[in-house]
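Closing statement on the uridine-5'-diphosphate sub-project.
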Amino acid sequence: MSEPKFKRVLLKVSGEALMGEQTYGIDHKVVKRIAGEVKDALEIGVEVCLVIGGGNIFRGLKGAAEGMERASADYMGMLATVMNALAMQNGLEQEGVPTRVLSAIPMTTVCEPYIRRRAVRHMEKGRVVIFAAGTGNPFFTTDTAAALRASEMNCDALMKGTQVDGVYTADPKLDPSATRYERLGYMQVLADDLKVMDASAIALCRDNSIPIVVFNIHEKGEFGRVLQGQGRSTIVEN
Ligand code: UDP
């Protein structure tokens, strides 16, 4: 087994990744599988914290498009991420992994409020921390929350688990000649508007020199392989 390339990482998983074959909500089998990937990463000596999106339940933009006030719709989206965080905590605990959910919107009967020093302490004690409720602010996304928390936690990388194994020159499902980038610069991602994460997340990672590693979260064992510098991924860095 090779040495992990990163000591501490933040794993960002979109809400949609938890749906599995469903069109809405949470598939517990998928949650358990991702929890297993996180457990394997801990076993090779990597500290892991998590941000989970909410798009499988509610997206603020969709609510706003249907006539809701954007800020209220965004708060609903943030609440959706709390549900996903609790589901993931449950999945991790069933794997025997001690886990804490820290929410940017305090709701002390279901989880802890987000306090940076407390989060650091949990991680030092070997617990997996799940950051819920995004940044706590409307008009943001969980991608930006992931970049923010990765910066606050001094993570060595932001691992973006997606449905594909990296960033391609074109959509590989539509264009068979599309090729995967091994490496990209932050500026190229921003200038070419490559769909890696939203622009504010990319800019925050660039400012704090946090590499973004895009890989396929659905491929068994891939998270661990990518952490060891193997597997298939695209790395976004300076
Ligand atoms: N959201 C927000 N502020 C944040 C993070 C999330 O308002 O800091 C809301 C926003 O409405 C978003 C929803 O929560 O649509 C779910 O998050 P996101 O769309 O990022 O989830 P993902 O696409 O990763 O599943």
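The beta strands are 8-13, 47-52, 99-103, 112-113, 128-132, 157-162, 183-185, 212-216, 234-237. With this model delivered, the sub-project is considered complete and its resources will be redirected to Aim 3.
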